[in-house]
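Board notes, transcribed. Complex of a protein with C2E.
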Amino acid sequence: MADTDARKRQVLIVEDEFVNREILKAILSPEYEVFCAETGTEALRILREQAGRLSQVLLDLNLPDMNGLEILRTIRSDLDLSRIPVIVLTSDTDSEVESLNSGAGDFIPKPYPRPEIILARVRRSIELNENRDLIRGTERDNLTGLYNREYFFRYAEQYDAYHPGEAEDAVVVDVSHFRMINERFGWVYGDRVLQRIGTALSAEVKDNGGIVCRREADTFQMYCPHRTDYEAMAERIAEAAGGDGKGRVRIRIGVYPEADRGIPMERRFDRAKSAADTIRSSFSENVAKYDKDLLEKEIFAARLMDDFHEAIEKHQFVVYFQPKVAIQEEPARVCGAEALVRWKHPELGMVSPGVFVPLFENNGLVRKLDNYVWREAAAQIRRWKDEFGRAVPVSINVSRVDMQDPELEETLRRLVEDNGLDFGDLHLEVTESAYTQDSEMIIRVVERLREQGFKIEMDDFGSGYSSLNMITQLPIDALKLDMMFIRNAFRENGNTGMLKVTLDISRYLNVPMIAEGVETEEQMLTMKELGCDIVQGYYFAKPMPAEEFSKYLK
Ligand code: C2E
Ligand code: MG
Ligand code: MG
């Protein structure tokens, strides 16, 4: 029946002698769908046609048009065919060794043994091979066909064992802003980029040795003999990845060169990853090496993480306030403040949030820290309300990590209620890059917070990668211009063109612009002339403790 035939496994018999062919066919037909070839040429044609479906080849070595070993070698060296097991049919024990070397899995001697023996051998060969396929399936990443991360680490250990005394590099290869590639060109295109990177990486280790895998998402790993051409490699991979020229793909490589064999394999790659992360936001560097400086930084980071909980308990974190000044009013008026955390570390002295916030964002500690800062800030708004009879709205920084907290709305609502504040007294700063990283989720959370009455300010505006199109759809109440714009505009030969553009955007969105990092009178006056509403910067005041801020207000 055709129905059962469709489900039978396929076997190809390559045999030029009529009698032998018919015997095998008769033995195998009840169990398998059998194809027969009388010549090498015919065999290769059937192999190509049925490549994906053949479960077994039975191969005679003496064919009229070619040596069977040639066919064997073709099968073994072809990506599509190499998974098919081959049993060699031979009357000549000498050729057994050669066939084995060429990749035969088993033999059936001529004259043929009993039918049960032939059937048993074919069954066993197919079964063994299918088991191996299964294993290989779990070793491999479906998208790129490279090893997956777990197997990679095992093979890397083996690689060490086979190459004693050789210096190996642990390498991590990353795509810069892969999310934006997906966003702009779609997932299918993104997948193709990853596949092309996989192919390019395989080519890199083909001649020079080494192994590669996909670590996760858009990150790959390579373990290879020490080499020095990583800049050129980054170029080659970027070139291959961009293939059809839709947009330039930027490749970032982190190398832990001549990795210390004394530390676990995974840690060696964590080091390479740390190196890659140091150039995450750089436009000029494609390659970073793990060195002593980085090691020291990591030790420092580990120290800060160890000290965190005690620091919270002992109130080592102090909240400073920096005024926001409405410059279009006469006279200019303090219209709010930003709460900025400082760490008064008993041994390390004053530590800047620029150092520890990114660190605590990576391991979630930032949620605890921010909850602490927000409580302090809310209590301070209450005190000022009592002292001055009016609220000084305070903006607090809400990390992208906080946005994932299902309790966020509840936490903030309680802060307002417990301190008897209005929702409008608390402004929330969400950085632009959070919007571009997980836009849908962030937009949902921000919309709900706004419905409650919180004011949302987009922090570091201009440093992320949101398109104009995207920004017009975002729920926000103010733009906080990234400090870089002021820096660039007032450098030697700087010009204010970009500042004008950003101010046009804020007008178009009908939200106020807050300029950060205004340090000189010239900068302040220019911003005022350009129509900027609010300025925050050293020109007016640095961030300061609450008591000092109270004096400043008076
Ligand atoms: P940000 O939110 O963009 O804060 C503005 C930063 O610019 C502050 O640095 C502030 O002191 C600095 N700044 C203000 N005016 C000037 C100026 O005229 N010149 C210069 N050179 N700098 C100026 P800070 O306090 O070191 O904070 C750095 C970043 O750390 C903040 O950037 C924010 O992203 C993060 N951060 C600070 N406090 C917190 C917090 O409580 N929670 C979270 N999640 N992040 C925080
Ligand atoms: Mg901020
Ligand atoms: Mg900012």
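The mean pLDDT is 92. Residues 115-139 form the longest helix (25 residues).
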